[in-house]
Amino acid sequence: MKFDNKVALITGGTSGIGFAAAKQLAEGGAKVAIIGRDQNKGEHALSELRKIHSDVMYLSVDVTQSTEVKKMVADTIARFGKLDIAFNNAANDEVRSLPTHEFLEEDFDKLILVTLKGVWLCMKHEIEAMLRGTGGTIVNTSSVDALLCSAGTAVYAAGKSGVIALTKSIAQEYGSRGIRINSLCPGAIRTPLLERKFLHLTPDEVHAVEEKYNSFNALKRIGRPEEAASVATWLLSEESSYVTGQNIVVDGGIQVVG
Ligand code: NAP
């Protein structure tokens, strides 16, 4: 896909789905800013991207902090002159996964902050910048957990459902002003986020969990980061010029009932 002369910003662009999207955008000719908190991870991702495109940068930003998000957009424009494309994809698993009656209130706040408010903060500042330019395209990462609402995922699923709602509503608000906004809804994708679930398991347990993931979907396998990223990249490109306010599911064909 062609992204010549486009400027893109990708939160969570230092790893997994976001990093795969950063590579695809850079390959298409975009100038790309990748965002994450961990400087080492960021520098490593940046050195890989520089092999593809010289106009790339890393910004150390926590998307839950409004002053940092505002600066993230300002720094991208200071370096590249404008903002055309934003992939709001950062999230993490830094809370304890416990049943609802034991789930900590502070963990509820942390999880909603990163999954939902972070996306809203990014859109707020990105849209302001895009309105000063010639419009733009935005993709926000949700999750198939928002559609499945399985036991044990309540707060994450609620945050990711909120991402779909923000996307649909804000897409209606800005469509006439040249900004398209869609959400990406991945199923199980083999990234560091997913691999961390396997860290404390024995090889047999890992095999059993992988088999469970495989059995859920029609393609009977876990997805690759590039397979989720390429859908985001399409949504961010001119190829999808009549698509806005949609939630695109990339899950290998999980059957969602209800
Ligand atoms: P990943 O490989 O762990 O990447 C997450 C990225 O987000 C990293 O670059 C991380 O960098 C960044 N990040 C996390 N918290 C941040 C914060 N507060 N501020 C700024 N950056 C932050 O995970 P992934 O699987 O690619 O996940 C990408 C998105 O897909 C997430 O929204 C996730 O919820 C969603 N998703 C993933 C799956 C899956 O199976 N992998 C399924 C459904 C949805 P730092 O740690 O350095 O900050």
Query: Which radius of gyration do the C-alpha atoms yield?
Result: 18 Å
Low-confidence stretches: none
Average pLDDT level: 97
**Helical amount among residues, as a percent range?**
40-55%
Going across the biggest sheet, name each strand in turn.
3-2-1-4-5-6-7
**Number of E strands:** 7
Q: Span from first to last CA?
A: 35 Å
Question: Main sheet, how many strands, which sense, barrel?
Answer: 7 strands, parallel
Please give a handful of descriptors for the protein shown.
258 residues; seven-stranded parallel beta sheet; 9 helices; 7 strands; binds NADP nicotinamide-adenine-dinucleotide phosphate
Task: Summarize the structure in short.
The chain is an alpha/beta fold and 258 residues long. It has nine helices and seven strands; from the N terminus they run βαβαβαβαβααβαααβ.
How would you characterize this protein structure?
- This protein has 258 residues and is an alpha/beta fold.
- The chain is 47% helix and 15% strand.
- The chain has nine helices and seven strands.
- The chain has helices at residues 16-27, 39-50, 66-80, 105-132, 145-148, 154-174, 192-195, 203-216, 225-236, and strands spanning 7-11, 31-36, 56-60, 85-88, 136-141, 179-186, 247-250.
- The chain has a seven-stranded parallel beta sheet, sandwiched between helices.
- The longest helix is centred in the middle third of the chain and has 28 residues, at 105-132.
- The radius of gyration is 18 Å and the shape is globular.
- The model has no long low-confidence stretch (mean pLDDT 97).
- Residues 11-12, 14-18, 35-38, 41, 61-64, 89-92, 114, 141, 143, 186, 188-189, 191-194 line the site of NADP nicotinamide-adenine-dinucleotide phosphate.
